[in-house]
Specification:
It contains eight helices and 16 strands. With about 280 residues, it is of the alpha+beta class. The strands form three sheets. The chain has a seven-stranded mixed sheet. A hairpin with a 5-residue loop joins strand 15 and strand 16.
């Protein structure tokens, strides 16, 4: 459980486990001869992908950013991705019970980012995993998820968010809102049209859960996107926007899918290449 302070806040990484993903899907148009220098793959071309959630203790609230893949995948999806489902176990090992979470923030509503928002109880009813929490997610994501394209229908599982919206436990955000003092969201389109990063500021220090805009440290080059990005050219522009601020101001970047390096400082080396420096 990597933990560090950020000003007055405490940040911790809790994993929902890892899962196998086709390397071509993870790196899109980047040839394997290039991406294989950064990550290893098996004989079926699968790479190991992480599911990193960020826990923020502000001193007033306990905030959970992303809830992993969860435990409600269909049998068909389990054949593709397995069923890691380690988040609650790992939170418990860190002394965190579901009732301790005050706020849950989803960067977007793909199944591997909001799966533990809800669980099925003994009767099979879908109920909130974190019963006391206020949930937040992008409004544009929810609107798109009502009628996704044939390409990404599989990415949206309504049971992860619809019951929370209907009950009023989930608030939909337009982008730019401050959730609690020091924690806000900022829209970075590319992976989806409305994906939001979570920006954490305290005592002059800043961290950002950048989500699938930069899923791993292997994706820090401006043009290294995923095949899943709906708007790949917008991904490039959003990364430029992010780096213009984060590199200059020395933000800590949190990577949602890196199984080995959950956070790092992204910097430019002497020849202008982006590099990740461990904190």
């Amino acid at each position: 459980m990597p933990t560090r302070t950020l000003g007055d806040f405490e940040l911790s990484i809790f994993s929902d486990g890892t899962y196998p993903l086709d390397g071509g899907a993870l790196f899109g148009v980047i040839p394997k001869i290039m991406w294989s220098r950064r990550v290893s793959s098996d004989d079926k071309n699968y790479v190991t992908v992480g599911l990193n959630s960020l826990l923020i203790r502000t001193g007033q609230q306990t905030v959970l950013v992303e809830t992993g893949m969860g435990s409600k995948l269909s049998e068909r999806m389990i054949k593709f991705y397995g069923q890691p489902a380690q988040l609650l176990k790992n939170l418990a090992a860190g002394g965190i019970a579901p009732e301790d979470i005050d706020i849950v923030i989803n960067s977007h509503l793909h199944f591997d980012h909001c799966g533990w928002n809800t669980v099925r109880d003994a009767s099979g009813k879908v109920v909130p995993t974190f019963p006391r929490a206020k949930y937040f997610a992008p409004q544009g994501e929810w609107e798109y998820g009502q009628h996704p394209s044939e390409r990404d229908t599989i990415s949206y599982i309504p049971d992860n968010y619809e019951p929370l919206i209907k009950s009023g436990q989930m608030t939909l955000l337009k982008g730019g809102e401050e959730i609690v003092p020091g924690i806000s969201v900022q829209t970075f389109p590319g992976h989806t049209a409305s994906m939001q990063a979570v920006v954490i500021r305290s005592q002059g220090e800043t961290a950002c859960y950048i989500s699938d805009l930069i899923p791993t440290t292997a994706h820090i080059d401006i043009s290294w996107g995923m095949a899943f990005d709906l708007y790949p050219l917008q991904t490039i522009e959003s990364r430029k926007e992010y780096y213009a601020q984060s590199v200059t101001e020395k933000w800590l970047t949190v990577f949602t899918h890196d199984p080995l390096t959950p956070w790092a400082y992204v910097e430019k080396d002497p020849i202008g290449k982006m590099v990740a420096r461990n904190p």
